[in-house]
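REQUEST ID: PR-0412
SUBMITTED BY: lab tech R.K.
PRIORITY: routine
TASK: structure prediction, single protein chain
INPUT:
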Amino acid sequence: MNTNQIDKFYYGVCVSAPCLCPVECLYTRFLWEDGYAPVSGVSIAAEGVGRGFNGIISNEKHEKKLPKGISTVWMNYNEKKVYELEEFLPFNQILDLFKRGVSLDKERNSKGIYKFDTLDLCYLPDGEVMLYVKSYCIKILLDWSAKGEVSSDYDKYIVSSREEETMNEYFDASIKQTNERLSKNCVKSYKQSTTIIKQLFKRYNYRISFEFEDADTKVGLTRLFFTNGETYNADFNRVFEIIQTPSIVENVEASWDTKDSRYAFYMYFNEDEMFTIFEEAYGLDNFQKGELKIKVCKYNNLFEVSLNVCGKIIPLKKTEIRVYVKPLAQLDQDWKLVFKNYKERHNYFSDDPYFMIE
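STATUS: complete
OUTPUT:
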């Protein structure tokens, strides 16, 4: 059997960075056993940690060996610095994940196995780089990081045709070329940005649970988004087997069936409230057992959300919730909005026609 063929995969590579600290990836090279290979594409990353979508390697054309090392250069707009990094990647860990895939639910996949198909290089403040592996249904942050060095030779990385006279002018102009949202985020102080970003990656020993007044109701498919960029999109019962010590949850999307109806549930947590409550509940010990409980009334239109850590129960008051319903006997019908406790239109669902709270 050809082992070289076994160790080749269809995969892509993308880059990401925090919204508060956007970067421009100038070039990247990957180290294989037979030398370096250049990677095409200059990408501006600022959509959030682990949320890269500007591919610098496509996963559609042919199988490739996984890289063993990386050489990359990027600009951090907020810090106004250029960083260089050459480092080995956690090759054996990546190879094992790509070979095994991840076993989740059998409802949407006959074998219950999903293959990883993307590497996401995430650029953080102070020249730190982290790495995610992604599949359709899950995104995992690897226990690996490296730190780049500040480059003093800017000009060899910047196009000579630029109109700006100084590097500061170049960075300012680069920020203005991004969209309005990024420009607003970038004006935050460097100290404020790094403080917030560090909070995103803190992990806690807690689980999310649903408590239904109708005891026959069970949660089915679920999508969870965490502040450190990890995501989960599969059967709810497996989530904390896969992500055992999660960071703070950002969003929860779930579905459940009652006797005659199917519900679609969307919950968006307030970042500042969650940071404050988790710090208050856990103090200096993030490994105390905790539970983020979502209580649902029998009519599926009243909700109580709280964090319980070692008997300390703290209610969440700023969570935004939206619920839709359709009959089980007519699943081809459009969803009907039955609950919404906020007036603004959420970014992901901007077509919500009205505000309702009962």
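NOTES: DSSP finds seven helices and 25 strands in the chain.
REVIEWED BY: pending
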